Amino acid sequence: MDIWVVGEIGTNGLEEGTLESLGEGRVLANSLGVELVCILLGDSPNQYSSIISQYDVDKILLIKHPLLSIYSTDGFCISLTEVYKKFGPARIIFSASSNGQDLAARLAARLHLELLGNCIWIKSVNDEIQLIRRIFSDRFQATYASPADLPWIASLIPNVAGIEKPHHSRNPIITEFTPHLEPRLIRIYAGPQIPGNPRSIAIEEAEKIVAGGRGVRDRVSWGLLEELGETLGAAVGGSRRALDLGYISSNRMIGQTGHQVKPQLYISVGISGMQQHLGGVASKCIISINTDRNAPIIQRSTLGIIADLHAFLPLLINKLLSEGRSGPDNQIPL
Amino acid sequence: MSLNVVVCVHTTNICIGNDPIQMNTNPIWIINPSDRSALEAAMNLQANYNANITAISIGGKDAVVSLNYCLGRGVNNAMHLEYDDEVSLDAYRIANILANAINDLLPDLVLCGDHGNDWNSSSVGPFLAEFLDLPQISHVTGFEIENHGRFLQTERRLERGGRQKVACNLPAVICMTEVSYQNTYVSVYRLREGSQRPREIKLISKQDEEEKSGVRLVEVSPIRTRPRRLSHPSTGLSAAQRMQFLMTGGFEKKQNVFEGPLEEGANKVISLLRESGFF
């Protein structure tokens, strides 16, 4: 029984959760000696097959239909049910995103399959498959076991498993499939996905964050951070010190005792980066601006700029603006 | 226009001690936070559209807490699906029992929370929608009823703060997020008054459930951090490079510290933002 990973295509292309699920699926497929299949749904999912090919999959199944251009539970569920009845049974892994959770549950109910949602780890132990998920607000974890021959559906929490480095090790077989979809079968009218407004979304949800700390001299200087945030379309947060000084509210505090964030881009301004702060930050790209070359954040940064923020930020903002890009104007209002 | 709305509520224990299965002797029961959002949304409909609200909960004595809260908050009716061994029920069975009970109520709208804080399940709503053969919209932050109670316009929450407008005809099932509606304080007087209001009680026997087994719970333990996946470093690298590779999780972080003219520093930041696709 193969392992299927259902990929998710978001506004910015393939979602990272898909790549994480592929990594998890690969390990499981290797230990069970089965094939890993990636399923992509959309009106033209072909463009992503080259990316998927780099993640060690045996087969790619492209489900194409004009009605799959935007996610709808009905359209995606009907298509996957048809695919499962034709190519199944299988163990199916989704990314536990909003759409993934939604679809996994609906599909499990329709196919009468077991569902284990919001897992952090799916692994093969002896003759069983173990699925682990956090329970009671992350205070405990529950381990579930499934017989190796049982089909099930699971969803994997994003940003937990990590993504493997892409490489070409096998050439997957690419198959296309057109489901029998009709507009009358889709009962949901879904609009386009709108990116979040960084000024109003929760700090944990932000993709780009500009954060300030003790090094920011006063409120006027804090305005520079907000200006930089607006220029880049990033949310503005801060360390405990910024909260104590009243620059931010508690819902914008980042750190172990504040909000734990995982943005794609994290710009730290005047933050030394002690463990209490960095313990709440996980980002692939950290740019730090600090006068202290030995500050811990500099060691963790992708790019560290040793400069006084009060002189550096106005220059950076001017340069960014002169490039003709303004963040907030590009945001679609909610 | 009078809407018939069903709101499904669930009770969670926030004082779980060292073992969530062996219940603490002094449990503190609360209504599940996202279910409370669903309840507030339902009360909004009662105020604006004169909707008839029925709160429904499954469980033993714990379910009484949620129903008392709902009655204190002002729902029109309450239904208690009494089942003593709630721990043995998974989301599929819960949805099955709920669907059997809700079917008879012929609702225009079924509201529930999108996430259970106890067993971390997000599937009761979609299961319920499938069993009732209704369209479902999950992770809803707000909604409006249009066209004389026949059309539902919602806003969904997506990743990284994204939003999506989704609409469907009624009847439908919607799953509300935790933060979608501000909670209203219910006074002790109202809670006591609610606890004295009548409610329908249905005893659920094990025969009423649809049998479904296979995946079983084997252990509940304190959390352990799972190792993040690391790609194997090339054998051609030196020991130090391999260690760095492993420590960075396989991502090649180019650590780069710049100290010099500000103009040049700004250019470096901009070129990194460009390379990474942020600008």
What is this entry, summarized?
By secondary structure, chain A is α/β, with parallel strands linked by helices. Chain A has ten helices and 17 strands. In chain A, strands 9-8-7-10-6-1-4-5-11 form a nine-stranded mixed beta sheet. Chain A has a five-stranded parallel beta sheet with strand order 14-13-15-16-17. In chain A, strands 2-3 form a two-stranded antiparallel sheet.
Pick out its properties.
heterodimer, A: about 325 residues, alpha/beta, five-stranded parallel beta sheet, 17 strands, elongated, disordered C terminus, B: about 280 residues, Rossmann fold, nine-stranded mixed beta sheet, 13 strands
What does this structure look like?
The complex is a heterodimer of chains A (334) and B (279). Chain A is α/β, with parallel strands linked by helices and 334 residues long. Chain A contains ten helices and 17 strands. In chain A, the strands form three sheets. Chain A has a nine-stranded mixed sheet. Chain A has a five-stranded parallel sheet with strand order 14-13-15-16-17. In chain A, helix 3 (73-87) packs across helix 4 and helix 5 (219-232) runs parallel beside helix 9. Chain A is elongated, with a radius of gyration of 23 Å. With 279 residues, chain B is an alpha/beta fold. Chain B folds into two domains: 4-213, HUPs (Rossmann fold, 3-Layer(aba) Sandwich); 227-279, no CATH class. Chain B has a nine-stranded mixed sheet with strand order 9-8-7-10-6-1-4-5-11, sandwiched between helices. In chain B, strands 2-3 form a two-stranded antiparallel ribbon. The model of chain B has no long low-confidence stretch (mean pLDDT 82). At the A-B interface, helix 1, helix 4, strand 7, strand 8 and strand 9 of A face helix 3, helix 4, strand 7, strand 8 and strand 9 of B. Strand 12 of chain A pairs antiparallel with strand 9 (163-169) of chain B.
